[in-house]
Amino acid sequence: MHRRQLIKSMISLSAGSVLLNSPFNVLAKNSNSDPVVNYKALFNKSLASNPKLIGFANIDHNFKPQVLSLEGSIPRDLKGTFYRNGPGKTERGEFRYQHLFEGDGMLQSFSIADGKIIHQGKFIETPKFQKEQQANKFLYSGPDTQIANPLPVSSADMVNTANTNIIFVGDDLWALWEAGSPTCVDPETLKYEEQVNLGKKTQYQNSLKGLPFSAHPKIEPNGDIWNFGLNQSGHIVLYHLSDKGTVKNVGIINAQYKGAMLHDFLMTESHLLLILPSLKKEQNISSTQQGFFNRIVYDENQPMRVLVFSKTDLALKKQYELPAGFAFHYGNAWEERNGTIRFDASLYPNVDVLHSMSRTMQGQVNNPHQESKTALFALNPNGTATQTILNTISEFPKVCDHIVGLRNKFIYHLSSSRNSLWSDTLCSLNVDSGKLDSFDFGKDFLVEEHVSVCPQRKEGTGYLIGTALHVPSKRSCLNIFEAKNIAQGPIARAWLSHHLPLGFHGNFKLS
Amino acid sequence: MNTATKFITTISATLFSIFSFTTPVSASDLEFEILGVNSSNGKLYIQLFKGEKNYQQGKPVSASAISAKEGSVTVLFNNIEEGEYVLRFFHDENDDGEMQKNLSGMPVEGYGFSNNAKPNFGPASYNDMKFLVSATDTKVRNQTTVIY
């Protein structure tokens, strides 16, 4: 879209009016120095008798590089670095963040070379982190956590925790959040460099500075990057970047989406899919429900909408309605020759999972919520859509990197074989045959996202790699599976001397 | 009409209205100190509004444009009659006469308000930025920092 057209099509909004919207204005200023409810005490008391909460405990220090102790052997063609991101700092002073999404980002890197795996972990020294580290206390309220005497927040990047994902863009590493800019980090030292001003040195200049950039960009086979960002006004920005992160095109649409949270999207060869889950913000605010995440509710009367955009001009081409549902994550999408678009999601029947994360952060261990299941969708050229929900619990779906946007035979995902706080099983679903190849880590493990690494660029080959926290020994391990045989268990497992905080997403860079 | 032209028009209109007064009124001087200017590039455009209605409608009673100076700048408004006022400004670093915004409408050039009032998950409130000029004041001082 030309810049002039883009600006004309944008609805002009007065300065500051769209920043994370109005919910925070209703919060009374808390000038007490102590939290009203001591969530830190609550959680740590519960941790003492519920060791499985260790993955949600606060981390105070960076993790110095250590060589991991290895079981099994590392495949010869698996060389490179696995990076993961997630919330690491959740407590300062007497305050503890109430929601899992609020913690400051901490990067874990696993460098695999010469038969050895070396781990290091480092907090991302965002502007927020630097100021709070120096002050030795939280200075800003979080989306759900009010602190004493918070500093005013005039832009999302002031409180950007960069905590959700980590991708390679050219030679740089970008730590991704959702509500603001990507954060550039040095790939070797993991040191903070800057918040990325996407349009700088292009015709867009500063018009993209500080805009929301999701944690789930989709990478083309040629390296081009596609992404979106949800504005609290309900507008969605679409991005097309080169493999080096240079902006090629930007689009903006008034999607009128009032669900407040939009985490992931999909890409096919020719289209981008924005799938808008059935969410809305609670209007009647009780005194205990004044946050951002805790006011997001499920609306069973609101269909899930799918917006289909052309990649060529980032214009809206088609819309579909699906039965009400909620998903954080989607696996993949692809287009048939007749124009039918197929995609999958880890689909929830409500948004209880979001609130259950709050309860876990507060130390509650018995918060069952309805798990997500693999759902397969078809968007037909005639405007109709179909949905099939499989009977498999699934989250963190992944496909091979080289197949993103193309027809995929496999979906790799996590699952739960028992009621656990986190996942405990790794699966590979053959979408064509329906066969599920899975490995249950057992009740002692909390299993994190496993990513596909495919040196031969042939689906069904290669490896799945991911971390898991072994609760009894309070140590985390890195696991390497053969993608073609998950059931046999990991072919290599490398142990840290300590545990890692449970994180969100990561990627492997083959060297 | 770009912002610079709007300012110049406002200054001319203000000067004209001062010479039109027939009733002498005592008036104060207003000194506005802006701290934390991050460069000497471009200009700072400052607007003075009398009362909430005029602020909401964007109708300043006076305006000024001064060269930016890294560190701090001070702006003087003379002969201000008593009343309730707010000040608003922006640092036009690229000197194009406009306050740059991103596609969400958020400023990407420095800006600020009297009383060091700050936006907080929403626009800065009029009540946070308002101050009084009373008939007995010779000089009213106000201080703020730039929000970048």
Give a quick precis of the structure.
The complex is a heterodimer of chains A (511) and B (148). With 511 residues, chain A is mainly beta.
Q: What are the key terms here?
A:
heterodimer, A: 511 residues, mainly beta, Methylamine Dehydrogenase, Chain H, five-stranded antiparallel β-sheet, 4 helices, 39% strand, globular, B: 148 residues, Immunoglobulin-like, three-stranded mixed β-sheet, 3 helices, 8 strands, 18% helix
The helicity of chain B comes to 10-25%
Here the CATH topology of chain B equals Immunoglobulin-like
The averaged pLDDT of chain A comes out at 92
Oligomer: heterodimer
Largest beta sheet of chain B, briefly? 5 strands, antiparallel
The fold-level CATH name of chain A is Methylamine Dehydrogenase, Chain H
Gross geometry of chain B: globular
Number of strands of chain A: 34
Q: Low-confidence parts of chain A, pLDDT < 50 over ≥5 residues? A: 1-30
Helix content of chain A: under 10%
Share of β-strand residues of chain B = 35-45%
How many helix segments of chain B? 3
CA-CA gap between termini of chain A = 36 Å
Task: Please report the distance between the alpha carbons of the first and last residues of chain B.
Answer: 25 Å
The strands making up the biggest β-sheet of chain A line up spatially as: 1-7-6-3-34
Q: Give the rounded overall mean pLDDT of chain B.
A: 89
Low-pLDDT residue spans of chain B: 18-22
The secondary-structure class of chain A comes to mainly beta
Largest interface: A-B, 34 and 20 residues
